[in-house]
Amino acid sequence: MRTALLLSGGMDSIAIAYWKKPEVAITIAYGQCASRAEVRAASAACEVLGIEHHVIEADLQALGSGDMAGRAASELAPVSEWWPFRNQMLVTLAAMKAVAIDVDKLLIGTLRTDGVHADGTTEFLAAMNAVLACQEGAIALEAPAIELSGAELVKVSGVPREVLAWAHSCHVANEACGICRGCAKHYSVLEELGVAPY
């Protein structure tokens, strides 16, 4: 079985890359404000870990909203970074690539604490897994950290600090702004782990 990880370059997905050691990582630059930094972080982590890395360029910025798109959040947004159907889009694009490179299983970095988003729930994951399973390729979708928080994932994964240091979690820029929800989560996890920020 050949496994791929949807690798954003953030703390969670880098920890999963170290923990699960997939053969392949897929990073998607979909028009998000921090796309260059995310690709750079994911590429660096893959090089260190010896993981085959594929980058998909698909500029969907015009369809985004909220912090990640550099726009005001939609009235539907549960939180400021909400991008409509984002995980559905990311899983679909990654699966399109996965079929072409003979991947059987696709991992995503959803955590227990991501349930504020409808596409961060076990119900969403089950639905997307069913969609992929009924199509050619029958790719299985899994979220190995769905029962964990960010700090619990880092502990379980055993990812070394020097690998985790590549992570880019900022939602709004290619350099960490220090104040968006992505940066706040990053620093909160480090604090919970008793680690000083990089």
Report on the structure:
The chain has 198 residues and is α/β, with parallel strands linked by helices. The chain has a single domain (3-192), classed as HUPs (Rossmann fold), CATH 3.40.50.620. Helices cover 38% and strands 11% of the residues. It contains seven helices and five strands. A five-stranded parallel β-sheet has the order 3-2-1-4-5, with helices on both faces. α2 (35-49) links the parallel β2 (24-29) and β3 (52-57). α1 packs parallel to α5 (150-157). The termini are far apart. The mean pLDDT is 95.
Task: List the defining traits of the structure above.
198 residues, alpha/beta, Rossmann fold, five-stranded parallel beta sheet, 5 strands, 38% helix, globular
List the helices and strands and how they pair.
Blueprint: E1 3-6, H1 11-20, E2 24-29, H2 35-49, E3 52-57, H3 86-100, E4 105-107, H4 122-133, E5 140-142, H5 150-157, H6 161-164, H7 181-192
Parallel strand pairs: 1-2, 1-4, 2-3, 4-5
Helix pairs in contact: 1-5
What would a concise description of this structure say?
With 198 residues, the chain is an alpha/beta fold.
> What is the ordering of alpha helices and beta strands?
EHEHEHEHEHHH
Largest sheet: 5 strands, parallel
Number of domains: 1
Main sheet: strand order: 3-2-1-4-5
Helix count, DSSP H or I runs of 4 or more residues: 7
Q: Spell out the CATH superfamily.
A: HUPs
Which residue ranges are poorly predicted, with pLDDT under 50 across at least 5 consecutive positions?
A: none
What is the beta-strand fraction?
A: 5-15%
CATH topology term:
Rossmann fold
The percentage helix is 25-40%
What is the top-level CATH class? Alpha Beta
Number of strands: 5
Q: Whole-number radius of gyration?
A: 16 Å
| Broad shape | globular
Structural class determined from secondary elements: alpha/beta
Mean of pLDDT:
95
CATH architecture designation: 3-Layer(aba) Sandwich
Q: What is the terminal-to-terminal distance?
A: 36 Å
